[in-house]
Amino acid sequence: MKNKKSAIMVRKFDNGTRRGFTLIELLVVIAIIGVLVGLLLPAVQQAREAARRSSCVNNMKQVGLAAHNYLSAHQAFPPGMVQPDPSIGSWNNWENASAYYLLLPLMEQPGLYDKITAQLQVDSANAQVELYNLSRQPVTNLMCPSDSTDSPDSPEGDRSNYGLSTGSTIFLGGADDCTFWSSGKQYPRANGFTSRTRALQTCGNPQAGRNQDVPRGTGKQWADGYGTEKFTDGLSNTVMAGEMLAGNGAASWRGTITKAVYPRNYVRGQSALSPADRNFITEAELTTWGQTAEAATDWFGRNGSFWGWPGHGSSLINCAAPPNWQYPSGGQGTPGMPFDGYTGLFPPRSRHPGGVSVAYADASVQFLNDSIELRTWQRLGNRRDGEVISK
Do the bridges between strand 239-243 and strand 355-360 make them parallel or antiparallel, or are there none, so unpaired? Predict the structure, then answer.
């Protein structure tokens, strides 16, 4: 009897035993989990990028709305450059300010606007230093969350990622229809949303372009920007602004430029472009210049660090080369140098996969693919070429 009970107990014990995973089964489970994570992770990353891109689009819409509020008040969009009034004393090129200075009160930054205005009214060596520092203060609406790199000059994130468009025109020395007043060189008329200089809007006479509503002696002097009547192709068919990438902060670098160095940084010291049509450079001409730029040994990484400076790579882009161009941006002038961007290619660039966000002059925003046809892109940058592009 005792043995029978023992047998029953053994059988119960045996029936209650739970067998563990074999090594093969464990590896299969781990593999399945790995596959699921591999499938889920890209979806999570895509969702995060979609949220960042949505935030970027909203930022650009805010810039567009600010520009339209400025238009309502002044019957013209903001010009690309503001200068101190020379009637209060001497000034140099580092005492200029970009169009974003004029938009600050309309982007919930009235205090910063007042501080910059005060420095524009001071003729001193320290004024340009203060103006530089003030014009690098963080402005959230000018920062794309997908470009998470800290500012080139400080870890505080005071970068800028949006540049107003000067159009498909390439600013060049040589024979053309507009003389730049301070250098005697000639440049083509600007055809974009805004202009780098007053002279490019007034063709030779710097005072003719002064905003007559601003009396001399107030410390501010700027040209009237373009009114809606200048956008003969329509506001919805003209690029207002595009994205930019912030550089790595290098003030100067001697050495071969590689794809690891650009597109974030700009090449400088390149020869001037000489396209057959300065409003519409061809793909072949772009490739020739771009391949030369790839062999450059001098590049610059201060772009995107100074939204207050009225230059390409700081507060301006142009639409001559396509978005996220495969070759380096830059030219004879680069961000942080005097007269930067007068002879160069400064297409929009972003960290969004496959393209860039652009704002149009009607304050709408669209994501454009990198594969956009070159001439279509150039015509979108040109406010008066006579071709209405179907977007």
Answer: antiparallel
Residue 148 tokens, joined? 């998470």
* Predicted local distance difference test score (pLDDT) of residue 178: 47
Backbone angles phi, psi at 81, to 5 degrees: -145, 140
Q: Which residue reads 């563990």 in tokens? A: 20
Residue type, 24: I
The phi, psi pair for 129, rounded to 5°, reads -65, -45
* Amino acid at residue number 189: R
3-state secondary structure of 365: strand
Residues of the chain short of pLDDT 70, as ranges, are 1-21, 83-95, 120-128, 149-158, 171-190, 196-224, 249-263, 269-274, 331-343, 391
Cβ neighbours for 12, distance < 8 A, ≥ 6 positions apart: none
What is the longest distance spanned by two Cα atoms in the chain? Answer: 121
* Residue whose token pair is 């200075």: 101
How far is residue 259 CA from its own chain's centroid? 19
Sequence letter at residue 43: A
On whether the CB atoms of residues 384 and 230 are closer than 8 A, the answer is: yes
Distance CA(84)–CA(218), nearest Å, equals 9
Task: Tally the C-alpha atoms within 13 A of residue 202's C-alpha that lie toward its C-beta.
Answer: 17
Cβ atoms within 10 Å, residue 241:
27
For 181-204, the three-class secondary structure string (H helix, E strand, C coil) is CCCCCECCCCCCCCCCCCHHHHCC
What gap in Å lies between CA 77 and CA 64, rounded to an integer? 10
What pLDDT does residue 294 have? 81
pLDDT of residue 9: 45
In degrees rounded to 5, what are phi and psi of residue 270?
A: -80, 155
User: For residue 318, what are the contacts with CB-CB under 8 A and spacing of at least 6?
Assistant: 165, 166, 167, 168, 169, 170, 192, 312, 341, 345, 346, 347, 381
pTM of structure: 0.79
> Which residue type sits at 325?
W
> What is the secondary structure of 94-117 as a DSSP string?
GG-EEHHHHHGGGGT-HHHHHHHH
For 35-67, give the DSSP string: HHHHHHHHHHHHHHHHHHHHHHHHHHHHHHHHH
Which residue type occupies 33?
A: I
Q: Which residues contact 8 (CB under 8 A, 6 or more apart)?
A: none
Residue 255 near residue 297 (C-beta atoms within 8 A): yes
